[in-house]
Amino acid sequence: MVAKKKVLFVITQFYKGGAEVALLNLFRNLSPQKYKIDFLIFDQMILKNAQSLIEEIPPWIRVCNAAEREGRFAVIFKIWFKLYRKITKRQLYRRSAYQFVKGKRYDMAFSYGEWLSPEFVAKKVKAKKKMVWIHTDIDKANYVDETILFGFDKMYDRYIFVSEQSKESAIKRFPFLEGKSVVVHNMCDEKEIRLAAEKPVSSLESYPKPWLLSVGNLREEKNYPRQVEVMRILKERGAVLTWFCIGSTANYFICQKVKELIEQYQLQEQFVLLGVKKNPYKFMKRAEAVMVLSDFESWSFVITEAKVLGVPVIATATSGAKEQLVNGVNGIITSFEPKEIAEQILEYLKEPSKKEQICKNLEGFSTNQDVIKEFEGLLS
After folding, report:
1. pTM of the shown model
2. At 4, phi and psi to the nearest 5?
3. Pick from 22, 278, 290, 320: most CB atoms within 10 A?
4. Signed CA dihedral, 91, 92, 93, 95: sign only
5. What is the average per-residue pLDDT within 132-151?
């Protein structure tokens, strides 16, 4: 009998977001007969407008929620840890995190996310192989501190990227990554997505159609203010439609800015913030198009999900969009300028045949088996 592979994943928080959902889907598709997985979550806080994924983790995976006993005080520790890291370039951790990995030896340990300091896995975890899993274009993201991210480079075997273009742009910016970088794409739970998409959305039927839909937490790189600008132009051009936005509004400052713009342009009935939804797929299925208008994105999970449902995507020309979409074939790629985005949307809405062809080209789309092979290749 082949021994199970012992694997550790370390992450900051586990709320619903593209990178986190991708990891959850990977967990669901890995076999408990082949793997023994430990999952360490450092800074899970109680957030009103964010959806925790902890309860959805398969029961065979051993979980340590290091901040669980702190309740609402966890946010204070997180602020202190972040400030300390910014000043010293070092990371503080809770004792429960140390205890969770103490005395263990893993076949593979992942520091999951460029937002997490790789220090803990590098210095406190014993593993045959160690890897950093990166989910954004690190050459563009202003929140990435390369001193921290690469401060323990000699202790890591690989850096994992979620798209080829993201990997190549990172190597161009950081040449030492050549030969140490691999790609593992994000994974969807395709069966669950299709089932969830069939649920009704009767509560929104009063809103004018067609519907456009954005799915993404209100974060800086998602550039929701630009989306409001696009809706303003569409309204001025006489378009009658509703643009729904699903995602966490926990970022107070971005949320307020977006709400102020909505009020300023009098778009309360046209640009609607729905907040967090446990089932975004029933909205996605009924959308005329899914909008992914980020400033940068290495691999948009939303694009993958929309393709699974056969729904056309209109996306800005990020590295992730260009890797997933062929313009005019299985989606539409646009520039980053609000006026040009609005023009693309209007053109798309006026030509039903364009949507029909894209939907036809998306029939039978799937990626999951490829992702499993990519992941298992890391441990070989």
Report:
1. 0.74
2. -70, 145
3. 320
4. positive
5. 90
